[in-house]
Design goal:
0% strand; rod-shaped; mainly alpha; 94% helix; Helix Hairpins
Length: 232
């Protein structure tokens, strides 16, 4: 009888110790789930910021293209105005030919010089404006290409995040199942089976994996802080 009582006491101690261990495991699992949800929220915010940045760049690009188009139209109007001025000068020349006074040659020379100046000015303005327009168009095309590349990169990043989110959702479901399993196990200590032991092994592997991931993330952050401090 005394031996039986000792065995019962030892069993109670073992059960109490196992219960404390199970409670610690459940607490750890709850913390992991909360940390997972927090990480997912941060990732969603980062993706939203990148998406908004791309939309802002695209809007700015459209505005710049409209400005270039307006400049091109202004240039066309300027050229038309200069052509009209040249026609007026030629008309003055024809009128000067009909004049018979001594000032005719002087007036013709003056008109020719004015026409020459107008032609040179028109040619110079046209060359400068055309060159400026070509440079602007080239810059716009380069920026548009970069915007498209950023859009493609963003789409690829979004696909990667969606894949990662699905994987993390699966891990979250597994954690929730394991938490439920641990709670059920805490209610029946003698109902252990091979399947339960296998799930415990999976849990331990997952915990180690998450701890390693957290340590790598922390080490990366410390490295970036040191590099930033070195640059300053």
């Amino acid at each position: 009888m005394e031996t039986t009582l000792k065995q019962v006491e030892e069993s109670k101690k073992e059960l109490a110790e196992e219960n404390r261990s199970l409670e610690m495991d459940v607490t750890l699992n709850v913390w992991l789930v909360k940390q997972f949800e927090k990480d997912m929220e941060v990732q969603r915010e980062e993706f939203s910021k990148e998406h908004q940045s791309w939309e802002t760049k695209a809007s700015s690009m459209e505005t710049e293209i409209k400005e270039v188009t307006q400049e091109k139209e202004d240039l066309a109007r300027t050229l038309q105005s200069q052509a009209t001025e040249l026609k007026d000068i030629q008309a003055h020349l024809h009128q000067a030919e009909d004049e018979s006074n001594l000032s005719w040659e002087t007036k013709v020379q003056q008109l020719e010089e004015e026409m020459k100046e107008q032609k040179e000015k028109c040619s110079k303005d046209l060359s400068q404006t055309h060159q400026s327009w070509e440079t602007t168009v080239h810059v716009m095309e380069t920026r548009l290409k970069e915007a498209k590349e950023e859009r493609d990169d963003l789409a690829q990043t979004r696909l990667s995040w969606e894949t990662k989110e699905m994987k993390m959702e699966d891990e979250k479901t597994l954690l929730e199942d394991l938490c439920l399993h641990m709670k059920n196990k805490s209610r029946g200590f003698f109902a252990r089976s091979r399947a339960t032991e296998e799930r415990d092994v999976v849990l331990q592997k997952m915990l180690r994996k998450m701890q390693e991931k957290e340590m790598r993330k922390k080490a990366k952050g410390e490295k970036e802080e040191k590099e930033e401090a070195g640059r300053q």
